[in-house]
Amino acid sequence: MSDTQNNYSGLDIRETIDGQTVVTGKSSPAESAVAAVAAAAERAKKATKPSKPDHYIWGIYIMFLLISVVELFSASSSEVSASNVYSPLIRHGIFLVIGVGIVLGLQKTHYVVLRRMAWIVAIFSLGLLVLSSVMGVEINGAQRAIRIAGMTIQPAEMIKLAAVLLLAAILSKNQAPGGVTNSGVIQCAIVVVVFGALLWRNGLTNMILLMGVSISMFLIGGIQWRKFGIVMLVYMVCAGALMMVKYMRPDTSQFDEVKKEQMIAGATTSSEKGGGRADTHKGRLSRWLEGTSPDDPIDDMNRQVVFSNFAQAHGGVLGQGPGNSRESARLPLAFSDYIFSIIIEDTGFVGGCCLLLLYLLLVARAGRVAYKCSRAFPAFLIMGCAVLIVFQALVHMAIVTGLFPVSGQPLPFISKGGTSILVMSAAIGMMLSVSRYAVTSGNKQEIKAEMKALPEDLQAANISNYTNNG
Fold first, then answer.
1. What whole-number distance in Å separates Cα of residue 143 and Cα of residue 154?
2. Same domain for 448 and 316?
3. Whose CA, among 1, 377, 410, 418, lies 20 to 30 Å from 290?
4. What average pLDDT does this structure show over 365-384?
């Protein structure tokens, strides 16, 4: 063997020949890393007996799928073609089936592997996000997607789950008596600020959603109040700096006058073509503060809000029944950004409340599983995924009901949108992985065996159950 081969870092490749184990070669560093992750996961699997996936989480997920199929078909009347009335449902069903496959695959993946993939997933998602900003395709007036092999991918949806995975890894590694270490707080704040700054171009709501999820994970992680205050101050300073860069531009009033003249003349009302996303944000906020009245004339600026209100009023208490929506044919994006209004029209106020309760049950069940976890990382991961799903659902509902300004946010698992369905399915798969492999029985022997098998950076105890773990 040459000197180069002798100095090459890697794992020995061993084979059994005539009853004896001999070294037949060495693996590359990349192969060594993959092998190390696989070995750590295998040790963790042997140390603990995998339980069945949490049937409550599975049941809630299946309910979402059933609601999605019924309501997506009801809300897609504007997309139905004369040749095939089922085409929107078929396209949506394909993504749902792929999502189920992702859930089944991830629930069999030990959370050790998910922890080792955190930085890889984050860097990959960031790369796609930057790529979409530079050479992406335009969707609803914003350059926020990339097209690969005929499929449109929205990296903004991926980056939110990647941030949850990365924050769970950092927080679990930097646990200390009484809270989170200074290093952990700084790393998490940097991740959120960088991710949020890049998300700004793809949607202000996405950035706010990411910050909301990160704040929840900080609180779940037991961060000290003084450090929490510092983090909030950093968030506000960075958000203020972004607003100054994006909004404080000269000649804004002159632009507004030109745009008004264009609207009067019947020219395009797309603010993205004239003044960029900053003017879109300002216009939406202004219209939200002014509100809408039933007597207002319907135009391109308020069409979504007006017809969404019509749909909710038409639904009443018990609704008109699935498939009997009247507004889905004229409400723009009824099958995605405004599908909750169609759900209320079909099932009424009662149906809307039941769907809200279903999302809240998901985060409640995740909290129960997290509380019983002996290690910190799986507890942070399952809660982060649940909070992400529920926060996005709440933001969608708030936009549809007029509590938040208009912004495009899909309703998890129900709105049409391939990337959102696949990403949220991955979040459910991660939650089920935690429910399978994390030690939650309180058995001290199993806890010690798990800790011995886990890598050092995953051995931090779950502070919420520390007294039970001993």
1. 10
2. yes
3. 410
4. 91
Residue range(s) defining the domain that contains residue 369: 63-108+298-455
Q: With a cut of 60, say whether residue 242 has pLDDT above it.
A: yes
In this structure, are 222 and 317 located in the same domain?
no
Average pLDDT over residues 287-303: 68
- The answer to whether the CB of 374 falls within 8 A of the CB of 449 is no
Residues 359 and 237 in one domain: no
Same domain? For 310 and 432 the reply is yes
- Report yes or no on 55 lying in a domain: no
Q: What is the pTM of this model?
A: 0.81
Expressed in angstroms, the distance from the first to the final Cα of the chain is 51
Any domain includes 174: yes
Distance CA 470, CA 461 (A): 9
Please tell me the least confidently modeled range out of 85-94, 183-192, 392-401: 85-94
Taking residue 431's Cβ as centre, other Cβ atoms within 10 Å add up to 31
Residue type, 57: I
